[in-house]
Amino acid sequence: MLGNQILKTPTSIFQGGRKTNLGILRVILAEMRKNYKQFFFTYYTLFWVLFLPLGNGLLYYFMYLPFTKTFIQFEWLGHSYPSMDIIGFTLIGQLAYTFFLSTLLAGAIFDREREQGTFEIMLLSPANRLAILLGNTFGASIRYLWLLVGTLFFFSFSFSIGIQINDFAAVFLSLLLSLLALLTFGLSLAAFSIHSRRGGLIAIACQEPVAYVSGLVVPQNALPQTLAQAGYLIPLTIGLIALRLSLLGGALLQDIQLLLLALVVMIVVYVVLAHYLIKVAEKSAKAKGTLAMF
Amino acid sequence: MWHFLRVVISTAKASLVAQWRFFRWGGMGLRLFPPLLNLGVAWALYNIMFEGKTLDAFGRATSNSDYFSFVLIGSIFYIYIVASLFGLGRAMFWERAQGTIEVLFLSPMNYVAYMIGVAAASFITSTVDVLLLFFLGNVLGFRVQHVDAPLLIVGVLLMILALFGLGLIVNAITLTFRDRVNTANTLMTVLLVFCGIVCPVAMMPEWAQIIGKAVPFTYGLDILRASLLYESDFANVLSNIVGIMALASLYIIIGIILLKRIEENSKKKALLTVF
To answer: What ipTM score was computed for the predicted complex, to two decimals?
Structure first.
């Protein structure tokens, strides 16, 4: 029903000779619905969002077994947290990284539209471009439910993850800001992929480098310093530190306020960047007429 | 026999020309990034985080405490797994995508020879990746502890046989179910996690050890490591050789049966070119 309305709206706009935009919320919901119908119940989604994260989580956990069976040392700004549980450390890493991966893969939306031959139609519709991207990124995030359910199932048997919370506000804010920062980062990448025509490849090729420099597997203090510093440009790195400290290290709000501030700055920067990249792409599409070409 | 060999050589040649004339840096990156990540993590864990100290249990399981070299051998082998799953495992899938599968099945050749040719080309290309990784590993601290040449040759040959068998099975699945990436990706993850690439199987939880022992590559990896990193007793090596031979034979037999079934089905149902 909603889809039909959206399809009809551009026609009435052109017949009436008036230029109107579709409601942003409607566009977001329609994109989310499309994304859900196309991908939610597919093996492809199950692999990327459930099987691969759990498999990689096990792999990274196994990598610690030759060294220690229980705890590792985690440092942040000179403060040491000596007893961070390895399973918890790996699990939180995988949960955040998979969310990041979902938004990253959502960046391939324009590649798909181009392949399906619907890209120009999408750009001709009066829908807000940022709303299209947001809807698609939210849609990709919904697939993440698979991992949450899978994790609950997997860990309901016997695994202990060493949760140690001293400040719920710190946990809530680090979770919220991390997810928002990852969403906006995905949004920027999606906007960038309009220009590159390599959204899918970029998303897949980014995985391992990002996994390394973000401290997903080994903490930042165990990485070569240049790589560790490069990692701070990615919201996943900051989010992971904030989440691990507040969930496993018992950190208080004042301990992680610097991290939270960095996440807020990143959210603003990436939203502005995404908006700018979309505008540039649209302008170039009108000037050159080559956007739908491969 | 001569005809069989001609098919192997010409298929390998054609595949190699296709792979190198249309070389894709992106494809090479996708093949190399996962083992590079494992190496990078192993290096950081071993050298920086734990300062070269491993648990006694690791030393007992491997007769060696050099974790980085342990992972490097595993990662090198992992490259061949990727070649088997994504190269050989999708050989006929790509023939269909290119519109040449009917011509392939109309030609009077032995399809096992064709698959051997594809496997040879994939493994040769992967050897370039392996050399790159080996070079990088040496820069980062990998050192061969000793070389047992006969054991190394036996290990590599058995490993290639087992990978060939696995590739045949995956090829049948990807072709029949029209599946481009899911089967290969799933198997790749299972093998990476459970066959002892990053951690000795003996140190894994018991349930993971059971899965690891059902995979021939676990035995093959142990043979390769015994030939380059640590000296293993004869009984252990022999049990590994028997293990990988038994499982590799099983995989190859299943793979050849599946290949025959594909051929029969293609004649009966004529659905090979239908997507």
So the answer is: 0.88
Asked if A207 reaches chain B (Cβ–Cβ under 8 Å), the answer is: yes
In a domain, A1, yes or no: no
Q: Would the pTM count as exceeding 0.90?
A: no
Q: Does any domain span residue A102?
A: yes
Domain boundaries of chain B, sorted by first residue: 2-269
A216, part of any domain: yes
The residue behind tokens 């040392």 is A73
Q: How many structural domains is chain A composed of? A: 1
Query: B28: helix, coil or strand?
Result: helix
Chain B: residue nearest A50 by CA? B186
Q: Going by DSSP bridges, is the β-strand pair A79-85/A71-76 parallel, antiparallel, or unpaired?
A: antiparallel
Chain A: residue whose CA lies nearest to B180: A44
3-class SS shares of chain B: helix, strand, coil, % to 5: 80, 0, 20
Tell whether B30 is within 8 A of chain A (Cβ). yes
- Determine whether the interchain pair A219/B49 forms a contact, defined as Cβ–Cβ distance below 8 Å: yes
Residue A56 lies in a domain: yes
Each residue's pLDDT tens digit, A215-274:
999 998 889 889 999 999 899 999 999 999 999 888 899 989 999 999 999 999 999 998
CB of B181 less than 8 A from some CB of A: yes
User: A68: domain range?
Assistant: 6-10+13-17+20-288
Contact (Cβ atoms closer than 8 angstroms) between residue B165 and residue B250: yes
- Three-state SS for A80? strand
Q: Which of A159, A146, A161, A191 is nearest to A53 (CA)?
A: A146
